[in-house]
Design a protein that fits this description.
With 478 residues, the protein is mainly alpha-helical. Helix content is 56%, strand content 7%.
C-alpha cells in the first residue's frame, strides 16, 4: 500500500511530524491552514531541515548539493500548490503538476544531485524564473476555469480522474526519487552510445522496474538479490512472449551494472553476478516467403516497392540498409554495391561485401536514385527513408519502406503482412538450400566470419559469390 504522506499528521496538536535518524522534526500549522493546504509548505520545510541536518551530522557533499537546489525545489512546490489552490483537483491540474515534477524535480534537480553538481545562486535564480514561466505556459496550454468561477456560479466543478493524485503518489518518497534520478543519468549516458530507439526501449523497461518497486524502496533495497529475484518471478508471470520478458529483465540488468561501474553500489548483485537474472529465449522458427508468395508480391509491386524488394532479395538489405545506402557504395557503371551491413558496420570483423546487382535491380536503382551527393534513395520529402526523432522522452520512427509494404499488402488484398526483413531471410535460406552455394549464406548476410581461417587466411572468391547471386536471381525473377 502506498504511503500517502512523507510526514505524519497529528490532528490533536495541529502539526506535522517526521522522525529521522532518531530525532523528531515538528512543523505546526499556521493560522488559517488546514492539513491539506499546509502539506506542501511543510514538506518543503522538512526537506530543507533534513538537508541542513545531514550537513551538520555528516558534512556530506550530497547533503550540501541537495541544499543548494532547495530554492528551485521550493519554487516548484509553490507553483504546484498555487495551482491546486486556484483550480482544485482536476485532470488539467494533475497534468501540469506532473509536467513540472518531471521537468524540474526528476530531470533537473534529482539528476544534478546524483551527479553531485551543486546549484550556484545565479543557477537557482535562473531556474526559479524558468519554473514560473513554464507554469504560466502550461496553464495556458491546459486551460481551465478557476475554482472561484464554480463557487460564484454555484455549479459543479469538473471531476478529477479516479486515480491517485500525483502529489500523493509514492514518487514523493526520497529513496525512489533518488533511484529515478539515477535512472535518468543512466539513460542519458546510454544515448551517447546507443540509438534513440534503443535508449527509449531500455528507459521503458527501467521505468517498469521502478514503478513495480514498493513505495519506500531505496537504492540498496532495489539492488538486493531478493528484490531482483521477486521482479524476475513477476516478469516470468506476465502473459507476453519470452523475448519480451527477456528484454524487460535485460534493461534492469544493464541499469544495475551501470550503477556498479559508476560506484553508486559497492558490488554487483549476486543474482546478476551468477548470471541467473535472465530469461532463456528458445530458437524461434525462421519465417520465410514461399516461392509462390515472392512471385505474387513481385508481380504486384511496381517502381519503388519493387526496387526495395529486389534489394532485399539481391543484397539481403533491411530497411535501414536501403536508407543508409550511399553514393560512394554504388558503382553504377559496373553494376555493384560494395558496403558493410549498417547494423554492424563499426565491427572490425564484419566483411565489406560486393554485391553484383541483377539487371532489374540496377535499372530501378538508376531510375530512382537522387541527385544528392550522399544518400542514393530519399523519400518524397527529400528526407532519409528511415528516420528516428526524439525529444528526450518519446521516440518517433518513420519508415517509408515499411509503409510501402503496407500499401502493397492492401492493394493485393493479402491477409498476411509483408514483413520486409523476411525477404532477407528468404534469400539467405534459398542460398543455404543449395549445396554449391550454402557456404555463401553468412557472407551474403554480412555476418562476421566464425572460423580463424575465414577471419585471417581465406579471402572470399568474388567470382563464386557472383555466381551465387546470379543463381539467386533465377530463383526469384521469372
Amino acid at each position: 500500500m502506498a504511503t500517502k504522506y512523507v510526514l505524519s499528521y497529528r490532528p490533536a496538536e495541529r502539526r506535522w511530524r517526521k522522525r529521522y535518524q532518531g530525532r523528531y522534526f515538528n512543523f505546526p500549522l499556521l493560522e488559517g491552514e488546514t492539513k491539506e493546504s499546509s502539506y506542501q509548505r511543510v514538506k518543503r520545510e522538512w526537506l530543507k531541515a533534513k538537508a541542513e541536518f545531514d550537513i551538520e551530522q555528516t558534512g556530506s557533499n550530497e547533503a550540501a548539493v541537495r541544499l543548494s537546489w532547495s530554492p528551485v525545489v521550493n519554487s516548484v512546490r509553490e507553483a504546484q500548490q498555487r495551482l491546486l489552490d486556484d483550480y482544485g483537483d482536476t485532470e488539467e491540474t494533475r497534468e501540469i503538476f506532473g509536467a513540472l515534477e518531471r521537468r524540474y524535480i526528476h530531470r533537473l534537480v534529482n539528476a544534478s544531485i546524483v551527479r553531485e553538481e551543486a546549484a550556484t545562486e545565479s543557477d537557482a535564480e535562473f531556474h526559479i524564473g524558468e519554473v514560473r514561466e513554464t507554469a504560466n505556459l502550461l496553464k495556458q496550454a491546459h486551460f481551465q476555469l478557476p475554482r472561484k468561477f464554480f463557487e460564484n456560479t454555484k455549479t459543479a466543478p469538473p471531476e478529477a480522474p479516479p486515480s491517485e493524485p500525483p502529489w500523493e503518489s509514492p514518487q514523493t518518497n526520497n529513496g525512489l526519487v533518488e533511484l529515478r534520478g539515477l535512472a535518468d543519468c543512466f539513460i542519458e549516458s546510454l544515448r551517447v552510445d546507443a540509438s534513440p530507439r534503443r535508449a527509449a526501449n531500455v528507459k521503458r523497461e527501467v521505468d517498469r522496474f521502478l514503478d513495480w518497486l514498493p513505495a519506500e524502496s531505496s537504492l540498496e533495497d532495489a539492488m538486493k538479490s531478493g528484490t531482483l529475484d521477486s521482479f524476475l518471478v513477476h516478469i516470468k508471470a506476465q502473459p507476453v512472449a519470452p523475448k519480451t520478458q527477456s528484454d524487460r529483465v535485460a534493461g534492469v540488468k544493464q541499469f544495475a551494472l551501470w550503477l556498479y561501474h559508476r560506484e553508486h553500489i559497492a558490488e554487483i548483485p549476486r543474482l546478476i553476478a551468477s548470471r541467473k537474472f535472465s530469461i532463456e529465449v528458445g530458437d524461434s522458427e525462421i519465417s520465410i516467403f514461399e516461392d509462390s508468395e515472392v512471385e505474387a508480391i513481385l508481380k504486384a509491386a511496381k517502381d519503388r516497392p519493387r526496387l526495395y524488394i529486389l534489394l532485399g532479395l539481391n543484397c539481403g538489405f533491411t530497411q535501414i540498409d536501403i536508407a543508409d545506402l550511399k553514393r560512394s557504395e554504388v558503382d553504377f557503371e559496373n553494376g555493384t554495391i560494395q558496403r558493410k551491413r549498417s547494423k554492424t558496420k563499426h565491427h572490425k570483423t564484419v566483411p565489406t561485401v560486393t554485391y553484383k546487382l541483377w539487371p532489374e535491380t540496377l535499372l530501378l536503382l538508376r531510375e530512382h536514385a537522387t541527385d544528392v551527393e550522399k544518400l542514393v534513395l530519399l523519400n518524397v520529402n527529400g528526407k532519409p527513408l528511415v528516420g528516428v526523432q526524439t525529444d528526450g522522452v518519446k521516440v518517433n520512427r518513420t519508415d517509408a519502406v515499411a509503409k510501402s509494404m503496407q500499401r502493397l499488402r492492401k492493394s493485393m488484398k493479402r491477409s498476411q503482412p509483408i514483413a520486409f526483413k523476411t525477404f532477407r531471410k528468404t534469400a539467405a535460406s534459398k542460398l543455404g538450400s543449395n549445396d554449391d552455394f550454402a557456404r555463401w549464406a553468412d557472407y551474403f548476410l554480412g555476418h562476421a566470419p566464425s572460423t580463424t581461417a575465414e577471419k585471417a587466411y581465406v579471402r572470399p572468391n568474388q567470382e563464386r559469390f557472383d555466381a551465387a547471386i546470379a543463381w539467386l536471381r533465377g530463383q526469384f525473377v521469372k
